[in-house]
User: Which sequence fits this backbone?
């Protein structure tokens, strides 16, 4: 059974750094794209970016480029989303999700439970 | 890139059929047959309902169907049930990444 288990909720101050994680199991971690989706409070879904753990090929949305870093450690089947300097506007639920199939144009077929990030002074 | 445009809300009575539209451009919806639809209940992670315009993953009810014409895709829910009340999002491949729709709240009256 494919499972994506995300790290727990975080409360941070503006300017702090943060790295949240998403551990995949039940499938070959290196052969499926895995990505991150942001959902701000009461708002819709936003596609942030995606990584292919097999070769670390990474793509970002225009709005996420330069704001976050997506990475993966295939030795422990874990993907990461990190910030170097958080802003209050980063407050949101962040979901990791795995592509349904192996191709880049495949939709997100499996989702993590979400990680709530709260940034407040 | 801009979010795909969906109606903010759609409602229907139990047993009725409703349709949700998703309008993009020739660079996303109109350019590829890689439109998908997600259902999200409050406090839950999204769930894939339709992929590649009209395909249903295993386990998704056949009351859900998808189609596309030009730059607009549609999700139809037939035989509306109380459990269908949720937010629905379309998504499209755009060659270098993906984009979601603005989301539609479906209310079962």
Assistant:
């Amino acid at each position: 059974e494919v499972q994506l288990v995300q790290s727990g909720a975080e409360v941070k101050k503006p300017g702090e750094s943060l790295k949240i994680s998403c551990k995949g199991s039940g499938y070959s971690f290196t052969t499926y794209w895995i990505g991150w989706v942001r959902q701000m409070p009461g708002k819709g879904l936003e596609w942030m970016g995606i990584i292919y753990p097999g070769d670390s090929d990474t793509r970002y949305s225009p709005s996420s480029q330069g704001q976050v870093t997506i990475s993966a450690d295939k030795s422990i089947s874990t993907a990461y989303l990190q910030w170097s300097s958080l802003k209050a506007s980063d407050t949101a639920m962040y979901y990791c999700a795995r592509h349904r199939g192996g191709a880049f144009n495949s939709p997100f077929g499996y989702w993590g439970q979400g990680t709530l990030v709260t940034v407040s002074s | 890139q801009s979010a795909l445009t969906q109606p903010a809300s759609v409602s229907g009575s139990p047993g009725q059929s409703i349709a949700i539209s998703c309008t993009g451009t020739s660079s996303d919806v109109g350019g590829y047959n890689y439109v998908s639809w997600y259902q999200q209940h409050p406090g839950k992670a999204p769930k894939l309902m339709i992929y590649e315009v009209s395909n249903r993953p295993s386990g998704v009810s056949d009351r859900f169907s998808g189609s596309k014409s030009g730059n607009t895709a549609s999700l139809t829910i037939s035989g509306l049930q109380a459990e269908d009340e949720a937010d629905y999002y379309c998504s499209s491949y755009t060659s270098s990444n993906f984009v979601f729709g603005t989301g539609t709240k479906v209310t079962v009256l």
Summary: The radius of gyration of chain B is 13 Å. The first strand of chain B starts at residue 9 and ends at 12.
